[in-house]
Amino acid sequence: MTETRGQTLRQLGPTVYLPSAVYSTGIGAVAPVIVLTALGLGASPATAAVVAGLLGLGQISGSLPAGVLISRIGERRTMLAASALAVPALLACMSASNVLLLGLAVALLGVCGSAWALSRHAYLTEAVRPELRARAMSTLGGVGRIGTFSGPFLGAAAMHVSGLDGAYLVAIAGVSLATAVLVLLPPVPHDRAVPPGTERPGLWTVIRTHRHTLRTLGSGVLLVGALRASRQTILPLWGVSLGLSPATIGLIYGVSGGIDMLLFYPAGKLMDRYGRRAAAVPAMTLLGTAHILLPLAGGVTGLTLIALLMGLGNGLSAGLVMTLGADASPSSGRAEFLGAWRLCSDIGQGGGPLLIGAITAAATLSAAAVAVGGSGLLAAFLLHRWIKPPHSYV
What we know:
Layout: H1 2-5, H2 9-30, H3 33-40, H4 45-73, H5 75-95, H6 99-127, H7 133-162, H8 164-184, H9 203-209, H10 211-241, H11 246-274, H12 277-293, H13 300-316, H14 320-328, H15 334-362, H16 365-386
């Protein structure tokens, strides 16, 4: 591991960040389209929100197995296996004849995304020094935001030519290219696979040992995941309620992702220099406030302004969850712990759209936006309460 301790972020770029950037670009093309596909198959807005939430539920079901798999076969093989499933999942999304089949394909796509993200997270936790940790993690989060920014634009352009199928074709190309990059580039110097015969703690032992951290700080991380996922669902739904075209909604979503892209490195530097709270609390406050203000958006201009505010809050939180997980992770059973840690965030990501769907069905979309916004303010409080001071990072 010492050979990776001195690596700079630039040295990590080709082998760590490039494949993740390409993969996230492909997935970013379909992120705002899943809701629209469900609506096109006859789903109600509430049901469409539930279908979008299945992406998060897939991530939930994949988090713990991915942590165990990384320990057994390593990060690279885990990502290759995930890619081998992601392409059929995207094809199934594109050709689904009913909402049920679409939902199953979306859930499988979530499983694959969880394996990719956890593999990179586990590696960077080992590879960088603590004083560079937030910048390394926020850069990893940033390449995901680059995908969120560029993917919808590519998807919107493709949709002008071939409808909603165009966005899925862009995603298939992105996942395939990311896999090719992963295969052609040399492996990273360190891989998380534990040598055969090495004693390692079991998954449930790791969870029991660190249950206090998972219960306290993990609760705040759960709400962070809910806020991020609800943004991906509620913006398209609000755009549909305003009568905007799919291409326009995709462009607004992409502009919001552009703010994310610009802020990822400053967010990491802020956390490394002034502590994790300095970014976490303002980020969740902004995201929560943006959701609360969403019912005031009555047209393209209003929705764009709200989307920009959401992008600002989301950008400030780039790498936050991964950084906090790396700070809290043990040296023994690290991949298993990070799988459980990611589960906290993934439960929020799966629950956010489901909460929107449930409240929309029972009341209105405006009520759902305000309720999710309130959870953002609660997240800001919990993170301020449980994040350790800067000198505690190890």
